[in-house]
Design brief:
8 helices, about 60% helix
Amino acid sequence: DLFSANAAVFGECATALRYLAQHPRVVPLLCDETNLLPLITRLARFDESEAVRYDAAVVLYHALSHEPSQRALCRAGAVKILTDLAATGPRTREVCSAALHQLPNDLMSHIDGQLLGVLMSLLDMKDADFTDASAF
């Protein structure tokens, strides 16, 4: 236990990882890290802070923008993490939807109702701009 400082530690870790993922030269290094998805899974399951879960979604958005790693990340469970994260709030759901839209069609062959709902949520976004990834 971290003497009741779990939320602060998780928050700082999630923010630092999000900042790292925003740099194009660092993304390939993050994607090659075998502990990336277990770490994101841990952040995604942290119930004490929506901001931590949002940061986890943003990290996955940036990781999935790295085309050479998309297939490996999807095989390792990135799509499931995104669909689970999407249920945590509308702002996080928008990022999850944008992340999924980066994937080629052949990686999205097994679409269920939950995944389709996340994909379709991009249509409902208001005032969101994903053209500048550094803005979120």
